[in-house]
Amino acid sequence: MNKPIIKINNITKIYNTGKASVAALKNVNLIMNSGDLNAIVGPSGSGKSTLMHILGCLDQPTSGSYFLDDLEVSALNPNKLAEIRNRKIGFVFQSFNLLPYLNAFKNVELPMIFAGINKYDRKKRVDELLDLVEMSARALHKPTEMSGGEQQRIAVARSLANDPEIILADEPTGNLDSKIGDSIMNLFINLWQTGKTIIMITHDPKVADKCERKIKLLDGEIKK
Amino acid sequence: MKKHSYYFKLAISEFHVHKKRFNLTALAIAWGTCSILVLLAFGQGMKDRLGDTIKRIGDNIIMVRGRRTSIPYRGLAGRRKIALDQDDVALLKTSLPELKYVGGVYKSWGKKAMAEKKEADIEITGVDGGYGLARYLMPIQNGRFINLRDVSEKKRVIFMGCDAAEKFFNLNDAVGKTLLVQNVPFTIIGLLEKKELSASFGSDENSRTYIPSSTFAALYGNIYYDRLIISIKNPDDAEYVQQRIRNILGSKHSFNPDDETAIKIRNTMEMTKKLGSVMLGFQVLLGFIGGITLMISGVGLANIMYASIKQRTREIGVKIAIGAQPDQIRKQIIVESFFFSIAGGCLGGLMAFMIITLLSQFPLSNKALQFFMNARLSFNVWIATSIVLVIITFLAGYFPAKTASQQNPIDSLRYE
Questions:
Q1: CA B263/CA B243 separation, integer angstroms
Q2: Is the domain of B67 the same as that of B20?
Q3: Does B309 share its domain with B359?
Q4: H or E element that contains B120
Q5: Are A99 and B322 a contacting pair at CB < 8 A?
Q6: Strand partners, B45
């Protein structure tokens, strides 16, 4: 289970904002193993969101290389990247990002529609996932009819739709109170125990402490 | 590469969640299509009427009347009367090959006529067999105009304008009845189809009556024609022919060809030309109105499409983050906008059809408003309008969608 799934070599990300250019990441090297529970911690502005976006194939580095499951992803076109996000990575956002006009069932189903999975298999999988996050009873409710914790459970179910190897969670408990945050955290720990690789951005030390490995970022560099 | 039916299904699957947007967009297209169609249909109706009128004037007619000379010429005094007769007709026929028809017309105002115990004064015109065709005098239904045989046999037959006939008869069964003109019986052979506008040089053709010129001369003893009616083969020859007529008649009757008052010449070409330019102006105006209307609905449409795509930036960002390919997003929006356009275009066509059909049911007696009833939907305009609006919808949806799908999903996710 200790096969490296993410290999980052010497990655730099520079944002050009008008006249000034800001280096959000400076020569970052990182290896993550399959099945790990990782926390990326650091103060705001330390570059952790940027790193997360690059890891999630939402953004591309200015220089350096990124191998995801032995595939060099920094050279791929947008359509190919979308496919990788669809199949290999599940996203959980701080602000949930569910589509407001779709009910829970359809939100969870969406990544499978993009993957071209047939209707019968989609329904089976959605039912399984809603069961897993204990939200079967809310399948036909829209996000606006749900609490934050419930919405995040739906978002977790959605991230698992295409059975990805990696779950990327950006401050998943940031908008929730601590008790509900704990229950979401337990959900991630359960997932980790089933063999998923989990990468979680957080500035909550309590959350970070529950993780196997902490990666500290400061001013765009990794501190050991 | 996924099949197109996939995007079709994807677009369909989201329709119910975008009902309001769909309704608005489709309605905008429908309204745009409908208003242009109706406008142009009215325009077409008006144009048809105008064209019809021009046709009915009778083509390329020149009228010549003998008057008095004003310039002394070759020892003859001024104020000498010029009168035209059969010899003049024959002379013009032989010397001007540009002419299609030359005929003399006798005239008499205020002849007493009687029929069905009613009495009235009528205007009588004596004409030859070719006159009806030259002046576009079309009989209604079962009637006919005066022909060559009527003239050669000096028949007592009469062709009447509707207004004249109405003084005595019911228009439906007037043909075949007898009209007494100064106690001489005439058989009615036809009624003139009502003319709305004519180059009649004087009285309204609808209130005239026509009898063979030979009968006219025999009964009333006229030798000289009231006027000559001439039609020419090519309207471009009008100026030249008019000058030649002055020269030919001038040398025969010994008057100065430059003597404007010796004979009076008028023609319908000027009128046709005027109407033609009105018609051209009208067509340009219609095209202009159509274009402006199309532009307005296009702008409205672009606005709705643009706003709705902008609204969906975040949605598109989320979809891309969870694995929708930018191509998928783009194709879905294209499929959507085609749906809107086709639905809207069909609806608009239907609406226009209903409006036109409804309006044509109104019995409008006012002649000026009759273009409402004559309104004619043009299939080509419908197709053209729909295509233009489809293109606008497509462009208005495509570019924001393209921008949104190409944007970094992170930025789209931040977009509120």
A1: 12
A2: no
A3: yes
A4: strand B118-127
A5: no
A6: none
Domain that holds residue B372: 4-55+273-414
Same domain, B233 and B249: yes
Q: Let me know the angle formed at the C-alpha of B259 by B256 and B265, rounded to the nearest 5 degrees.
A: 115
Which segments of A3-96 does DSSP mark as H helices, in order?
Answer: 48-55, 78-88
Chain B partners of A163 at a C-beta cutoff of 8 Å?
none
> What span, in angstroms and rounded, lies between the C-alpha atoms of B21 and B6?
22
How many angstroms separate the CA atoms of A176 and A179, rounded?
8
User: How, if at all, do strands B208-212 and B61-66 pair?
Assistant: unpaired
CATH of domain A36-60+77-223: 3.40.50.300
Final residue belonging to a domain, choices B267, B290, B317:
B267
ipTM of the predicted structure? 0.88
Give the residue from B267, B295, B322 where a domain finishes.
B267
Contact call for residues A111 and A98 (beta carbons, < 8 A): no
Number of domains in chain B: 2
Task: Specify the long-range contacts of residues B295-300, CB closer than 8 Å, at least 24 apart.
Answer: B296/B32, B297/B28, B297/B29, B297/B31, B297/B32, B297/B33, B297/B35, B297/B36, B297/B389, B298/B32, B298/B388, B298/B389, B298/B392, B300/B28, B300/B32
Q: How far is CA B69 from CA A44, B79, B91, B253, in A?
A: 110, 5, 20, 10
From the list B10, B406, B410, the residue facing A113 with the nearest CB is B10
The residue among A58, A92, A168, A170 with the most chain B CBs within 10 A of its CB, best to mutate, is A58
CB B365 within 8 A of CB B320: no
Same-domain pairing of B260 and B334:
no
Q: pLDDT digit of tens for each residue in chain A (224 aa)?
A: 578 899 999 999 998 877 788 888 999 999 999 999 999 998 888 888 889 889 999 888 999 999 998 899 988 888 888 899 999 999 998 888 898 888 999 999 999 988 888 989 999 999 999 999 999 999 999 999 999 999 999 999 999 999 999 999 988 888 888 888 899 999 999 999 999 999 999 888 888 888 889 999 998 899 86
Q: Which of chain B's residues have a Cβ under 8 Å away from the Cβ of A85?
A: 321-323
Length in residues, chain A? 224
Both B254 and B378 in a single domain?
no
Say if strands A37-41 and A197-202 run parallel, antiparallel, or are unpaired. Answer: parallel
Q: Are residues B297 and B281 in the same domain?
A: yes
Claim to verify: residue B260 and residue B293 sit in the same structural domain: no
Return the structure tokens found at A210. 């529950």
| B408 in the same domain as B368 | yes
